[in-house]
Amino acid sequence: MIIDSHVHVWVQDPDHYPWQPIGGYVPENEAPAEKLLALMDAAGVDGAVLVQPTPYGWDNSYLLDAAGRYPDRFRCVCLVDPLAEDGPDDLRRLVGEHRIAGIRINWNIHPAEVWLTNAHHHSLWKTASKLEVPICLQLTPDYLHLLGGMAEEYGVRVVVDHLGRPVKAASPSNAQFKALLGLAVQENIFVKLSGLNYYSGEAAPYRDVCPLIEAVCEQFGVQRCMWGSDYPFVQDHWSYSELLSTVKDDWNLSSEHLGWVLGGTASRLWWRQ
Hints:
Blueprint: E1 3-7, H1 33-43, E2 47-51, H2 61-69, E3 74-78, H3 87-98, E4 102-106, H4 112-117, H5 119-131, E5 135-138, H6 144-154, E6 158-160, H7 175-182, E7 189-193, H8 196-199, H9 210-220, E8 225-227, H10 234-237, H11 240-250, H12 255-270
Parallel strand pairs: 1-2, 2-3, 3-4, 4-5, 5-6, 6-7, 7-8
Helix pairs in contact: 3-5, 7-9
């Protein structure tokens, strides 16, 4: 089973799915679930994890509707306001009514000190831990010191998006990247092997990131690593099918390890409901 662990979907239908951007970005194009499914079918991808895009803010309606139409193909990682008092209540509602697979917190939007000191943010982590709901984090290396403490304190499974966004053209010996590798001792931390263009110094197929991917797979183990396409953004600079082919052919993974990266890890996290 091949599972794409990181995709975004949206439509230009603000009457039904209004824009409520929390990151200052509203797309001009469309990325409907059906277009994604066509690409998945052509590439032989069985399922995908829909990650709520920031332009929709805390309104997860489109994701939930898409997953409702295609329950065998999609799982939802939603957004709730992590700095609001009612964030934990929203999480409990989403889990109870929609059986969501996880939440995402965009740490990169605010300084680390905000996340460290905000009581509502900590309450959300505590609630996610009780509900056994994984937390996906969008962050940069500047937040890794916070990640270790939060993951240890609350014991919830944490998924680091996009390899933690290393600096462009970083090598495995980069000090900040080594800080990410150091977190492998915490068994509740997972890593998405996604968003290659964010930290590669080359054009597609981004072969210069292979040493980073190999280092993460070695330190964390492939049972805690997973591929993600970052659809639809991958289509802006590459292609969905070519990315998947590169993972299969160029990432120097055995067939067993490839099975974990391409589906086993994501299945264990999100397809167990």
